[in-house]
Amino acid sequence: MTRFLHFIDSLSTWVGKSFAWIILVLTLGVSYEVFVRYVLRAPTTWAFDFSYINYGALFMMAGAYTLCRNGHVRADVVYRLWKPRTQASFDLVLYIIFFMPAVLALMYAGWPYALQSIGYREVSIFSPAGIPIFPLKTLIPITGLLLFIQGVAEIIRCIIAIRTNRWPRRLHDVEETESIIMQEQTLHAAEVEAAQAHEKKGA
Fold it and tell me: Residue 4 burial (CB < 10 Å; 0-12/13-18/19+)?
């Protein structure tokens, strides 16, 4: 089961990190627009569309990644004082009542919405540049699917925590632990080599 959970985490992580490169594209695009607008006095017609399309794609596709990292904002003043079993019970109820129905609704409504946009190659109405926005709308049901898959993983984590009163380790926790172990092994090997070299000099 742990391997299955880590597989879902790795999928969400790969998607999130892939779309994180949009930040670089967005930064370069906005910087270019600022330069031509205020230095060359020649603003572009596509800056607004470019910004909201890229930011929207980044925001949507980072949702499952943030969920797998347990990084969403949580009002946990009381929550963090509870035992893992209580936390998991509370989370499970919220996932079943609120999260999963909302995600299913997003997929259900987003699919025909995206198909319609793709059908007539929808472009932006906010500028004369005619920037295509159907790729952004296509991401809506995909976002819902990724959130649903990650939500299943989170529900499984809740069930495990309810049974064991301990949260199962997440993929990034395992990766960090492996990095620490590798660093310790490297340090230990260096210490052994230094000790052997010192012994040879003493001999």
Answer: exposed
Residues 181 and 158 in one domain: no
Q: How far apart are CA 32 and CA 172, in angstroms?
A: 36
**Which domain range does residue 189 map to?**
176-203
| 183 and 164 within one domain | no
Task: Render pLDDT for 126-181 as a digit per residue (tens, 0 to 9).
Answer: 778 888 999 999 999 999 999 999 999 999 999 999 999 999 988 765 555 555 55
Question: Which three-class secondary structure state does DSSP give residue 70?
Answer: coil
d(CA 187, CA 193): 10
Element (H, E) at 124: none
Beta bridge partners of 123: 132
Domain count, the chain: 2
Both tokens of residue 108? 């259900």
pLDDT digits (tens, 9 = 90+) for 51-93: 889 999 999 999 999 999 988 877 778 888 899 999 999 999 9
Q: How far is CA 110 from CA 50, 116, 134, 139, 157, in A?
A: 22, 10, 12, 9, 27
C-alpha 103 chain-centroid distance: 16
